[in-house]
Amino acid sequence: MKLATYQSDQGPRAAGVRDDGYVDLNRADPEVPACIKRLLAQGAQGIARAEQAMAAGEPMPAADVELLPPIPSPEKVLCIGRNYAEHAKESGADVSAEPVVFNKLPSAVSTAGRPIVLPKLSQEVDYEAELVVVIGTPGRHILRQQALDHVAAYCCGNDVSARDWQFHHSDGHWLLGKSFDTFAVFGPHLITADEIDDPGNLDIRLRLNGQEMQSSNTSQLIFPIDQLISHISGICTLKPGDLIFTGTPSGVGFARKPPVFLKDGDAVEVEVEKLGVLRNHVVAE
To answer: Are residues 106 and 178 in the same domain?
Structure first.
């Protein structure tokens, strides 16, 4: 099932995505939560009911719908660094013994069709294609063999990064370099976990102005999704709607010779197999 969040007169509301438009799930069935986080927290049973509501509901034409980020206000935006061996190599770093975890501020969240804004304070803004995991069932100290049961959905992500802040500004600020507005891009929709047989075997690629810059497969993740969820949940409770950006493959701009950074007018596409294409254009602040 494809899920989205749209802006209504009453605020953000969960919608199902059909070929003929978007269905407000709560209006089709009042038992389905209007809040996407509450819906995801219901697990498989809630998704099954939402699918019935989507099939029965009256669609809204796509042209009449203002889409918001699929999770408009995630509590946590967690990211994994250097989780593909070739990317670690091109970054000049060794493969870590345990996951490198950092976060983005929730205010950085954006989605498909919205511009990636190049901040005045950075001259080295880079792209990073990623598979994004969306938590449904909350949990703490989650066992690895049960970790995927806590996943509600997957989508494409672009971990946009200001490299001059991340690596060179003062002593380096990963949080700040990763958290400028519009730097946590994900979408275009959520694909529920039941639609993805093996999230550890999905092709992932990024195109910049039509040219392929990154191409890999999630089978190359150093720390797979179940291990990441188990590891992070030992530190903090994972909650419905929390996002985990799982890492980017090789081919990022700063590692190229000469480096390639995003510029005003660029078009960026992140494609993950079975999850669609996340498209954004780039504008200067």
So the answer is: yes
